[in-house]
């Protein structure tokens, strides 16, 4: 497995672990906050990142770009929600919406990569 695919797999594992922790914290210590939302988003995108780490017929370059954009997007989105809920501060202005836009873009990039197929990158 290429190094970049292993890096994506590690990012998937970290996002999954953070998602479980955030979901537990949202259910127990921070109920009624966006901690639970951050946890759910982390878990969903951890599974997507794991799928993107597996070599497939999709364009390798597009798959890797989608994974990178997704990792940055989920970090900004969930990170901002967690900081707002736990520490009453923001990562930076508009971090969560920008992260959300990156997540949308990452899914579209993954779709384009799937249409492009092998031989395109």
**Share of helix, binned:** over 70%
Shape estimate: elongated
Separation of termini?
Answer: 17 Å
How many H/I helical runs?
4
Poorly predicted ranges (pLDDT <50, ≥5 residues)? none
Number of beta-strand segments: 0
Strand content: under 5%
SSE succession: HHHH
- Rg measurement, Å: 15 Å
Count of the separate structural domains? 1
> Mind summarizing the main beta sheet?
none
Q: Structural class from helices and strands?
A: mainly alpha
Averaging pLDDT over every residue, what do you get? 93
Fold and architecture overview:
With 121 residues, the protein is mainly α. 78% of the residues lie in helices and 0% in strands. It has helices at 3-28, 35-52, 60-87, 95-116. The model has no long low-confidence stretch (mean pLDDT 93).
For this entry, give a set of tags.
4 helices, 121 residues, mainly alpha, single chain
Describe the secondary-structure layout.
Layout: H1 3-28, H2 35-52, H3 60-87, H4 95-116
Short account of what is shown:
This protein has 121 residues and is an all-alpha fold. It has helices spanning 3-28, 35-52, 60-87, 95-116.
């Amino acid at each position: 497995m290429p190094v970049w695919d292993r890096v994506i797999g590690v990012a998937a594992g970290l996002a999954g672990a953070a998602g479980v922790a955030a979901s537990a914290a949202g259910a127990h210590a921070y109920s009624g906050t966006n901690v639970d939302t951050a946890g759910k988003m982390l878990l969903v995108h951890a599974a997507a990142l794991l799928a993107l780490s597996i070599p497939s017929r999709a364009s390798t370059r597009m798959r890797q770009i989608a994974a990178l954009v997704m990792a940055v997007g989920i970090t900004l989105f969930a990170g901002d929600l967690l900081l707002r809920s736990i520490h009453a501060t923001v990562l930076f202005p508009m971090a969560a919406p920008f992260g959300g836009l990156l997540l949308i873009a990452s899914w579209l990039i993954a779709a384009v990569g799937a249409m492009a197929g092998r031989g395109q990158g």
